[in-house]
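Lab manual, section 2.4: Encoding a predicted structure.

Procedure: take the sequence of the chain (112 residues), apply the prediction step described in section 2.3, and record the output as structure tokens. A sample record is shown.
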Amino acid sequence: MHEMAIAEGILDIALDYAQKNGAARIERIGLLLGELSGVETDALSLCFSSLTADTIAADAVLTWERVPLTGRCHDCGREQHIRPQDCLCPHCGGGMEIIGGREMRVDFIEME
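Recorded output:
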């Protein structure tokens, strides 16, 4: 399950940031998860909560915002929500470039 490795990475980032800023407790961690990130959020939450016991993030809440898959047409320049199978622009038939929706990153960490 790759969610365990992702949860470990998130916790490492949060603990490192908390240590550098002298925090005693991590309260909330916000993630940006793209539509194509492949992250199963229920599994991620379970993995994260199992890793945080006995850490300053023991009671931390893990939240996320889903980022829609978006593309830009190489010909007409339109940017729009697309489906993974959309290779051609529905407006002009030009090739589509994915510009958003693959994100998987820590957006913010709330701590005290």
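Check your result against the sample. The chain has one domain: 1-69+101-111.
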